[in-house]
Amino acid sequence: MDLLRHLRHFVVVARELHFGRAAERLGMAQPPLSQSIQRLERELAVELFDRSRRQVRLTIAGQLLLGEADELLAAEQRLRRLVGQVRAGTLGLFRAGVPPETPAVTLRALLDRLTTEAPGLDVDLHELTTAEQVRMLAEGRLDAGLLHHPVDAAGLRYGPPVDLPLGVLLPRASPLARLREVSLAELSGLDLITAPRPTAPGWYDHVLDVCRRHGFVPGRVRPARNPEFIFGLVLAGGAVAVEPQALGRREPRISWRPIVGTPLVRRSSAAWPDRSPHPAAAMFGQLAAEVLATADPVVGAAVTPQVQPWPVLFEAGTGSAVDGNSPR
């Protein structure tokens, strides 16, 4: 027996106290409505309406049931809305991973968008490398992640990809920092600073392959993840890093220069399990793409050499002073 359906019929008849008008409100014929009320009375073993007179009246049992039915049907609507929000991904717990190097402004923008689109969603954000995210997605401990491609993993669905051009981080005193663009071949012999291979094996191999194909064979590869550590290695001399322009802006003693031909582009996208995905996963993927697409310069954008914030510098190894406003 569909108790809730019969209760909805009962409430309308109880409000109208007229089977014809109640049937009209419910959009049904009067005989099926009468049968529905009779079945409810048989189920509860009471009479809900006094039909002994020409006017339909509620019995004592009917009056008591009306108050309870109103609360029960209101609770049903709340439950349906709640389940609908969960199904739509706007309510509940959502576990997401983001790369450790994600800028604070990007994280804030992503969280703000999620709050706007799904205010009831409890976002549990984790700082994880691509490899860690892939493993946790496979284990069911993460609902979605923001990965750096290429990714060699089965059973994942991906959101829209966003390409971010990479350039070279150099000490401001480096002769290469005076150029508007730097070719990878011009870096030959220098060490390459990049994230350790276990953090994103596909990306690590891709970077080295592109560098070698363009004439840059690093003296050695120096693993680094923390931005401050990357800056320290670059400033120590003899090593460069290939990173987004946004990272270079964080250290005034370092210059970022685009690479000729833009051969290195970091492709990122959200990913989530292909089977039984979280309802909010696709929304997360779309919002992440929109936030990433507006967070950094587009590929091929002209970069003006940075103006040094101090008036006088000494060229490394020469001891001679140079004008701080000259190109670096």
The assembly state of the depicted protein chains is single chain
Q: Note the main sheet.
A: 6 strands, mixed
How does CATH name the architecture of the largest domain? 3-Layer(aba) Sandwich
**Amino-to-carboxy terminus distance:** 81 Å
Assign the structural class, choosing from mainly alpha, mainly beta, alpha/beta, alpha+beta, or little secondary structure: alpha/beta
Poorly predicted residue ranges? 297-328
* CATH third-level topology of the largest domain: D-Maltodextrin-Binding Protein, domain 2
Percent of residues in β-strands: 15-25%
H/E order of the elements?
HHHEEHEHEHEEEEEHEHEHEEHEE
Assigned CATH class of the largest domain: Alpha Beta
User: How many beta-strand segments?
Assistant: 15
Structural overview:
With 328 residues, the protein is of the alpha/beta class. The protein is built from ten helices and 15 strands. A hairpin with a 6-residue loop joins strand 1 (49-50) and strand 2. Helix 1 (3-16) packs across helix 3. The chain starts with a helix and ends in a 5-residue tail after the last strand.
Short description:
The protein is an alpha/beta fold and 328 residues long. The protein has ten helices and 15 strands. It folds into three domains: 85 residues, Winged helix-like DNA-binding domain superfamily/Winged helix DNA-binding domain (Arc Repressor Mutant, subunit A), CATH 1.10.10.10; 98 residues, 3-Layer(aba) Sandwich (D-Maltodextrin-Binding Protein, domain 2), CATH 3.40.190.10; 123 residues, D-Maltodextrin-Binding Protein, domain 2, CATH 3.40.190.
